[in-house]
Amino acid sequence: MPKVTIDGVEITTPGAMTILEAAKLAGIVIPHYCYHPGLSLVGQCRMCQVEAEKMPNLATACNTTVTEGMVVSTKSPKVEKARRAVLEFYLLNHPLDCPVCDRGGECPLQDYTLKYGPGESRSVEPKVQRAKHQVLGPHVIFDAERCILCTRCIRFCREVPQTGELGVFSRGDRSEISLFPGKILDNAYSGNVIDLCPVGALTSRQYRFQSRPWDLVRHTESVCPLCSAGCNVILDIRDRQGGDELLRIRPRENPEVNRWWMCDEGRFAIGALNDPARLRIFLAREGERQVELPLDDLLSRLAREIRHLVAAHGEGAVGCIVSARHTNEEFSLVRRFFLDILRTPHLDHRVRPAQWAEADASEDGILRRTDKTANSRGARDLGILPDRDGLDTTAMIAAAAAGRLKALFVFEEDLVGERGDLPVREALGRLELLVASSPVPTETTALAHAVLPALASAEKDGSFTNFQGRIQKVRRALPPIGACRSLPEILHGLAERLGWDLGDLEPERVWAAIGEQPGPYQGIGWKEWRAIGPQGALPAEIAGKAERAAAREPGSLGTKERMTNVQ
Amino acid sequence: MLFEKILTRYQDVPGYTGTIEAYIAHGGYQALPKVLGVRPPADVIEAVKRSGLRGRGGAGFPCGLKWSFIPKDSAEPTYLVVNGDESEPGTFKDRMLIEEEPHQILEGVILASYAIGCHQAFLYCRGEFVKGAQVLQRAIGEAYAKGYLGRNILGSGFDLEVVLHRGAGAYICGEETGLLESLEGKRGQPRPKPPFPAISGLYRCPTVVNNVETLSNIPHILLRGPEWYAGIGPAKSAGPRLFSVSGHVEKPGNYELPMSITLRQLIFEYAGGIRNGRRLKAVIPGGSSSPVLTEQHLDVTMDFDSLAAAGSMGGSGAVIVMDDTTCIVRVAEIVSRFYRHESCGQCTQCREGTAWLHKVLRRIEHGQGRKEDLDLLLDLCDNMKGKTICVFSDAAAMPIESYLKHFRDEFEQHVRERACPFGEWGGAF
Amino acid sequence: MIPEESRKRFDELVARYPERRSALIPLLHALQVEVGYLTPEAIEDLAGYLDLSAADLLSVASFYDMLNLEPVGKHLIYVCQNLTCSLLGAERLIRHLESRLGIRMGETTPDGRITLRRMECLAACGAGPAIQVDGLYHEQMTPQKLDALLDQLLCD
Known about the structure:
Chain A is of the alpha+beta class. Helix content of chain A is about 25%, strand content about 15%.
């Protein structure tokens, strides 16, 4: 447990550690570029040099281990001169692109230069010109003039997805990062290099020229909904006159879930939210067509139908398949509605093979998982499963095809599209009542008697339980579009018309109710979420090199609090 | 004055071919039977330590001490890597040893490997030494055939395999960890030290990297004794040294001399003095990485410590002599151009600094210098020293500082007159 | 694709080293001789053989001056431009070569015969100015000796 003093602050380190990590413990950020806790150490940018008593030369904090009694200064005149010099060397050939560079305003080169760098250039040599705006792949665009050769991007591609598309070619001041001719940067994690790049050399094609950081008014912390990994994210929202817009999704650091990374599919999924095909109104079947209907009217109509069907055929004539894309709070209310109010035992969330308990697995040995829904675990834990001898998904479809199931509620699953192996069309066609919710029209909604526009996860508050059993908050970043209402609201309205009170709809109160019941979530408060049950092990690749990533890194990728990767 | 030739005694053999027969005929491979399996390896290290032999590649680090850093009880294999990447401008002595006396090197390799417990040694030969690589390969073959390499050498129980490995043109692969990276099939980018190669070297195993000339001394030390060796030249810079003398001298070439010799003697008594009857203007005493000296320094003795005290360094022992037709600014430009070309590019100060230095010097030489450029250069040099992964950056900066120190008026003249006073060719060029 | 007999030689080279990757530069030398220069296909093939990404391999190859990533002429002339050779007239040799062949240093004659390249210290300072032609050193060069050399190379 070496004790080290950094800038007069005495720090007791829990074990072998570098100066940079020890400083982090005390909240001292030593400026750096090439260092990243999730990548191998190279110690080549030379930004993190500090002065250590008894060492004749400056030491790089990122790869110098602290020794007992070490006294370090990150602010001595020698350090300041060295740091200023490094910045001067970087700026020699750095293009004056700030006005057109996406990184501007959240740029560690700008920030460190302002704080530590020279105010004027001493160079009269023409700047070296290189190829700009090179499209590297579907998501990333590269400007070689801006590159500071920290090699984070190269190390990332080699060490995490292990695809090695990028390399530094040539030598000395002719060094340049590029792809092998003819190849593209298309691994499933390519977007992470955008976060890693300390300057505007690697930027997002999707986000290019979309905004300045100060125009992003909200940075909502949430969880990616696209698979059971539950990668932590930040949703960057820009306010616009016509309504707020989700412009960018970034990973949020979580040492136990996704470390510092996320996959491209989740990162670039803003299109789903803004998809022009999204349903914004409620639809009811009239003959061959589906027409818009106000929600109140639709709910009244549905309540009538349900009463009629249950009276004629019994409670077992109604079934519900609810997608594992819903939150735990929504599941709790769905179960209350179908099991307690409608008293039907036919309830399930499982549609795809990967959703069975043992079947969900790592898809690529990194982050992506085979279960492409966020909350199968929550669905399982909260009993979104057939009650007693109720029917599961496959059996419900068979029962519908045989005419035994008369009404089916399908919430956010395109059964027709997903289960081509089953007689879904036939089954759904025979139903007397098909209620389908979806964010966009699908083959399933086309067959429905009532179509409910579904909210995106960015439009609701609640929780998902990832494959590890970790309960994580989903936070609302944007208001619902069009006439969309949440599933709890719809079920509440329906229950009311059936003479029942579904209870509190507020996610926090719903959760409180969950916590009161026996089950895996019993006793867990809204503020105390923690991992429950066995934890899935992280693959080595995303675990990063060494376990030193525990501490947070405020401001390591630049600017103010809002850029910080916060838990 | 005549000094005994040790490393180059083969030059006195008429028609010497450098084959194993020729080497043995003039006394070679006699140390092997006296050492392998006879003297304990620790003994051999002790002897080399006592001899005072310092590395001949450029750093001058005590050889025996370096060998003693190898852990005695490592579970991993120990490697000996021979640095035959001679690339320091002005140096051409290793090439001579490789092409003309390869077996002396090999005998040193075998003895060194025995001392440190290495059973596979790598001979890294500079890529441009096409002939040298052929000679070495032939010599290795001869040594295997004679049983001096391979298993159970001379019945001693000691095994040694030697692999010849060619480089491909990069000065920085002469830096020991740059060499190791290159030998591992990567870019020759030096590694941060610590850890040092003795602990974590080739394939992260304990490794000693020794220069060709350094190893050539080993058979002699072991055959004739460390005390004899330590008595050659100054105490702290013992043993014969090969000085490569070139430039504006009558008789350029390699001269084997003790380091008690002075620079004046070397240039004027051995290398025939300045050619064409001209005057000495400047002299680089230890390869282009060493700070320049002038005629006021001629009486410095050519040992490591005296040269350091004079503000320069022993370096690779390469002496480049410049007469009074030489434009020093042009010299600085050429030297800085070399460092710019050879920087590996890892560290910011070196990658950008070597280029900036060259651009400024080129501008000054072409008559576009500004007054402020001179102090700018000095500040750049200061920012480049002591702050990088390896000392290449220092090697680029220190010479420029020395040119400015001793010849500042010449730089000022270029700036003032907006032209090189020596003409388009920089005079001598 | 690496032809079968080359593959055997490559396997032998690789077998000399405790780790495969060490054979990379020797293999690049061999490949260069075989293919003429290191084409993107050759580099990709070698990358596959050594289980490295193509970018990794190109990153290594592009670091070294003697590895040719562009086509080179039948004859490769390296001219040392470092200090001693410059002190002894290397730039004059360079001007002479450029004027005689009508190309600049770094270029290849249009007939593909000769490539000129500036190199750094060849360790021939004692007999400078020095050049290296197709691996062979030619020392104490003068424009006259250059002419004689070029005469040979050009009719070869």
